[in-house]
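Example 3.2
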Amino acid sequence: MSGHSKWSTIKRKKGAADARRGKIFTKIIKEISIAAREGGGDPETNPRLRLAIQNAKGANMPKENIDRAIKKAAGAEAESYSETSFEGYGPCGVAVFIECLTDNNNRTVSSVRAAFNRHGGNLGTNGSLSFLFDRKGIFTIEKEGVNIEEIELELIDAGAEDFDVEGDRITVTCAKEDFGSVNKKLNELGIEAEEAGLKRIPNDTKKVDVESARKVLRFIDTIEDDDDVQNVYHNMAMTDEIAAALE
């Protein structure tokens, strides 16, 4: 998990600039919209919407933005998004899994394919790389005010598998099936995760040198800049050397 944690730390540092461009909020609003359209606008009865609102708060999205997105999603003129994913190999043979929410699938396919071609990658067929990633529940918690030793056993009983401390954040990992119970236990403990969700964690990583890592991350930046893209996962090993070079 340490590689995932290092990558998350780097992304948080990059995130301030992304937030200024509105990219983070755009992705969250899409998730709120699709959750509200599928399960209704009441977070008490809609777990997916409740989680999307939780993540919006963790990203410091204003309450009025959240309320506006929910209200808009419930209206007759709400935009309709569909979920789609892409798998392939980016530069240097690094496996990449991309999750999208889009209102125009042809546009998204064309944009993602162009990014792979431009960066020397190879877009594969759906399912071709799924075996390289395990879907896990991931919770990111601010370390301040949290005594991990005091809550560790209770979270393990709820299904937590791993705890990783990196900088000022704690990452808690669980099986996909235990996501709900761990989230419930955190709520019972009065701990609100800064970010929570199901993520794809590589079960095997590929080591590359620093220069190759820069090529891979430039490719990932291109993919993430696409407004239709929600999440990008990769299996590049985030070594201490690479992490230091990117800080």
